[in-house]
Design a protein that fits this description.
alpha+beta; 7-stranded mixed β-sheet
């Protein structure tokens, strides 16, 4: 199977919001995924430039196969940099490798790693040096993917309203 990876635009917002909602509703372990509850979250990220979204389209069916969201938290209190003790001056160098969602029909093709690698490549030309993410402790698939991509487990913390999460870091020069 082949996929085309492109950066999402504001015109994709409604489709991608529906995509995430559909994935979450059909998950066996919903606590592993903490989608933003605001229905305009994606639209807001894209219109305020506080995030970037990559989407994977399967080239034959033209179906959305997956997406990956990167968030630039700045000095927002949700910045994972606070959790790992980054100095205040470094907080604007944090990018949250935030949300990955892959349609069940396209799992097993390495899309999570492909999307994250695409995001990392784009971020390599920016000021974002601390790539941080959270993964549910029991989600061995995502934990393994992050470790294979060079992310290091830092600590476990309660996030997103009290859900346990492992915090991972990949530091760029």
């Amino acid at each position: 199977m082949k996929f085309s990876i492109t950066q999402a635009t504001i015109t994709d917002a409604d489709e991608l919001t529906s995509f995430i909602t559909s994935i979450w509703k059909n998950m066996e372990h919903r606590e592993w995924f903490a989608p933003e509850e605001d229905k305009d979250y994606i639209k807001s990220l894209l219109s305020t430039h506080t995030g970037i979204i990559w989407k994977a389209i399967e080239t034959v069916s033209r179906q959305t196969a997956g997406l990956f969201i990167v968030v630039f938290p700045g000095k927002n209190s949700e910045n994972l940099g606070y959790d790992i003790g980054l100095p205040e001056a470094e907080l604007c160098s944090v990018a949250h490798m935030d949300t990955v969602a892959v349609h069940p029909n396209f799992r097993g093709y390495g899309l999570q790693r492909l999307l994250i690698s695409q995001a990392e490549e784009a971020l390599s030309k920016t000021q974002y040096r601390y790539l941080l993410c959270t993964v549910h402790p029991e989600n061995s698939f995502s934990r393994s993917n992050m470790e294979k991509l060079g992310y290091t487990y830092i600590k476990q913390a309660l996030k997103y309203g009290g859900l346990p999460r492992c915090i991972y870091l990949k530091k760029r020069r």
